[in-house]
């Protein structure tokens, strides 16, 4: 049976610098060093309980485990006396972000249109003219000035 400390030791062996930084690649005077992104988690436990009624141990146990997720982060490009970072772009994440922005914008426009329609319906039901419009047969101040001058 594996102990909790064995699980953690194995997890440490997996998470080394060599796993994060790949082997350098040299071409045409440039050196490229690939970099990975790691996310890890782990846990372990042990438990003991009461003995059974017949004297046999029934309540002890132990367990543990860890999980690891790795993906490309980008590369360091070394050349001409300079080091540049070139991130790896996850196109799926970019597309998903764009879709979320578009959906949010469409829902906002829909809400604004509905609110305006409700306001117009409430104004019409109350018998008054919508804001910015004069009642039928009324003339504005500029119309009255034109009649006087004309």
What would your notes on this structure say?
The protein is flat, with a radius of gyration of 35 Å. The protein folds into 2 domains: 1-88, no CATH class; 89-128. By secondary structure, it is an alpha+beta fold. The mean pLDDT is 79. The chain has a 4-stranded antiparallel sheet. The longest helix has 36 residues, at 91-126. Strand 1 (25-27) and strand 2 form a beta hairpin. It has 4 helices and 4 strands. It has helices spanning 4-14, 17-20, 91-126, 141-149; strands at residues 25-27, 30-47, 61-79, 82-87.
Which stretches of 5+ consecutive residues score pLDDT under 50?
Answer: none
Strand percent estimate: 25-35%
Strand order of the largest sheet: 1-2-3-4
The overall pLDDT, averaged over residues, is 79
- N-to-C series of helices and strands: HHEEEEHH
Helix content: 40-55%
Number of helices: 4
Helix/strand structural class = alpha+beta
List the helices and strands and how they pair.
Elements: H1 4-14, H2 17-20, E1 25-27, E2 30-47, E3 61-79, E4 82-87, H3 91-126, H4 141-149
Antiparallel strand pairs: 1-2, 2-3, 3-4
Keywords:
150 residues; alpha+beta; 2 domains; four-stranded antiparallel sheet; flat
């Amino acid at each position: 049976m594996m102990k909790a400390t064995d699980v953690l030791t194995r997890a440490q062996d997996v998470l080394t610098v060599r796993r994060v930084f790949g082997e350098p690649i040299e071409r045409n005077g440039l050196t490229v060093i690939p970099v990975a992104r790691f996310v890890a988690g782990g846990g372990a436990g042990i438990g003991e309980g009461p003995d059974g009624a017949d004297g046999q141990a029934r309540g002890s146990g132990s367990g543990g485990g860890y999980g690891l997720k790795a993906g490309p982060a980008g590369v360091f490009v070394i050349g001409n006396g300079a080091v540049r970072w070139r991130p790896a772009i996850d196109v799926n994440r970019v597309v998903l972000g764009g879709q979320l922005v578009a959906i949010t914008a469409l829902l906002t426009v829909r809400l604004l249109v509905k609110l305006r329609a409700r306001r117009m319906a409430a104004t019409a039901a109350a018998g008054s003219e919508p804001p910015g419009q004069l009642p039928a047969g009324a003339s504005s101040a500029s119309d009255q000035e034109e009649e006087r001058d004309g």
